[in-house]
Amino acid sequence: MTKKTSKTMIKDNLVKRLINTYTDEIIIEDGELDFENTVYNFAVKIVDEIDPSQQKSMLGYVFDDYEECYSFLENNLPTLRHELEIFTDKDAD
Hints:
Distance between the termini: 39 Å
Number of helices: 5
Helix content: 55-70%
Structural class: mainly alpha
Number of domains: 1
Strand order of the largest sheet: 1-4
Strand content: 5-15%
Largest sheet: 2 strands, antiparallel
Order of helices and strands: EHEEHHEHH
């Protein structure tokens, strides 16, 4: 993982962007959010579909693999779970 020191997206904006961009990757199982699989799906999309220069500008890093990206998302976006739960609850109504 290569770190970039310049300014990146605000974390709350990044969370909303991930949810709105990768809505089809959000996993709901038995009516409940499957957070781990959803975050892994986001990581796959980021690594596979987002150009490294865009990864740097959005996240501050270029990821070498899915697990690295998954760890970053899980550990650096503290509102991700909460916002996903809000999104899935709203979607269920």
